[in-house]
Amino acid sequence: MNTTKITSALLLTLALVGCANLKEVRDYAGESARLSAYMELTARFRDTYYREQPYLSGEPDRLAQDNDKRRKAAYEDLLKIHQRASLYMQTLATLAGEDTFDISKEVDSLASGIKAYPDFGINEKHVDAISNIAKVITKWMTSSYQERAVHNMVKEGDAPLQTTLEGMISLVRYYKKTNENERKTVLGFFEVEIPYADAPKDKLLATLARVHVQSKESEYKDAQQKYDDAEKGIKSIAGGHKRLLENIDKLSNDEVKATISKFAKDIKTIRKNLQTVRG
Amino acid sequence: MALANQEQVEALADNITKCANSIHDRLMKAIKNKEIDQNAAQMIFQDEASLRQRANGLYIDAANCVVDGLAESQKSIIDLIDTAKEEIKTIKKIASFIDLIADLLVLAAAAYAAKPAPILAALKEVKEDVEALSKDSQ
User: Tens digit of pLDDT for each residue in A43-52?
Assistant: First the structure.
């Protein structure tokens, strides 16, 4: 009886010590991997000509066609940047994962396997004890490896990741400026043409044009919101990783956990916002 | 070098955009004051639109500069992902090792009880564990 008590106390201690404090890292990396705003905006950048084409003719149209070809040629490379940053985050989330290295299921089936042979001369209590010890030892061994692996990845990954994210922020800014020129081309067209459509016979035309302007204005307003949110999101990812690196040796500290969680929450909020804008 | 270039290209594009904006403001004033006819207005707007396309062309150049500048960081990230995947494999291998130990315990217990059927079953488990481990290390 006494042995059982000591064993359970020992198991509890081991379980607590062995628990990897990586939940916050996992949440942060998981949310970061799912932020797809950059991808959508890259597609919007690629399709610029499709939207502005009806309003263009002559020289501007010729230039626009050339730009269209070049944007389409750059598209794959622009997308790859996001895919790599996202794969990095996915891998980090897996590495920090709770279930990635969980073998309790295997150990449980093993325990029931042993129970199927009552003639062994070992009773159920022994079997449970063995399976619990196996679980705790595995958890303990894997979690120390896991923490070290996460530690290494964050440490070595920070510099190239920060450079990549900075690059993505620049790219989003170019997308935004391109979109601004597109907006002014499209809305500018109506601004110039509508005043000349003031003859009574043009009333229907002018009205339809104004209705169209209204819908275009709201489309561009939504798009502008997306560029701003995407930039905020990428900055949050960068800030979160920087904080991770700074606190890599004290990830179990409550204050650190709270900070990392906040980054995960911010990124999640931005992602949800973007989904609403799209809808 | 690439970065300076990228910034210069962006600044140039920004300035061209600003010129187009000024042209547009002046054009709208002229239309409002009825200084010009529709034909002239359309011609000026064509020029404004051309400038915007020139600026957008430069933003593509700047974007391509960013892509080129990121090549090295991208390679580091890919290497890191590969390393992490190896780590994940190693950790999973530790888990398989624990499986082996647990199965050996069953084998020992079966041998102690001298029951042929459980011994054979346990031996099979151990054999599978060892195979799984050697497959991982390949």
Answer: 999 999 999 9
